[in-house]
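Input record, target 12 of the design panel.
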């Protein structure tokens, strides 16, 4: 996925990290199944031996779909996900469309996997930016909209005092000291 400067893409590439850095190479991967339409601004999360792709855009439309790419051999902790995926052949990775109970258009968001949940935060829904938190259960395929974050909330920033480096910084007995500019200051910034 992503783009090449002219159009959105839907190809899959892998970096071989089993070799020294100077020999690492990207290779295009062969996949089977119905792959996502070309897109950028999506997220891709590795969960066990599967990669979940959420949302994105082709530049015209914000997507609400979720796809799963099975990367091969299963591990015991992936047992609940076995029902979702058609087993791949040994030399290919297989795409499946995930049919969630409810979908939400989303692009330019973040997604983090914790346990058997994918937390999808913020982004754009095709019409406006949002601070919604979506919680996608990877075991049951239920997507929950958390209303706790729908209210505009202040962003708390800390002003951290500067550190003064003495002119004789090469002397290991001299340590940087906090400036006398004052204690930490809180500032609230509205969205």
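The sequence produced for target 12 reads:
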């Amino acid at each position: 996925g992503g783009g090449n400067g002219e159009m959105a893409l839907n190809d899959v590439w892998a970096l071989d990290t089993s070799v020294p850095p100077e020999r690492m190479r990207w290779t295009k991967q062969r996949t089977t199944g119905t792959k996502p339409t070309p897109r950028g601004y999506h997220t891709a999360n590795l969960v066990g031996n599967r990669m979940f792709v959420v949302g994105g855009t082709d530049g015209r439309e914000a997507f609400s779909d979720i796809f799963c790419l099975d990367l091969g051999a299963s591990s015991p902790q992936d047992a609940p996900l076995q029902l979702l995926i058609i087993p791949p052949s040994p030399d290919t990775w297989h795409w499946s469309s995930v049919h969630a109970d409810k979908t939400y258009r989303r692009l330019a968001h973040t997604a983090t996997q914790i346990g058997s949940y994918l937390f999808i935060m913020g982004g754009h829904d095709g019409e406006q930016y949002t601070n919604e938190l979506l919680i996608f259960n990877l075991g049951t395929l239920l997507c929950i909209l958390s209303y706790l974050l729908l209210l505009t909330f202040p962003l708390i920033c800390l002003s951290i005092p500067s550190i003064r480096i003495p002119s004789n910084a090469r002397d290991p007995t001299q340590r940087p000291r906090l400036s006398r500019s004052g204690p930490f200051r809180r500032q609230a910034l509205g969205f």
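Residues 74-90, 148-166, 174-191 have pLDDT under 50 and may be disordered.
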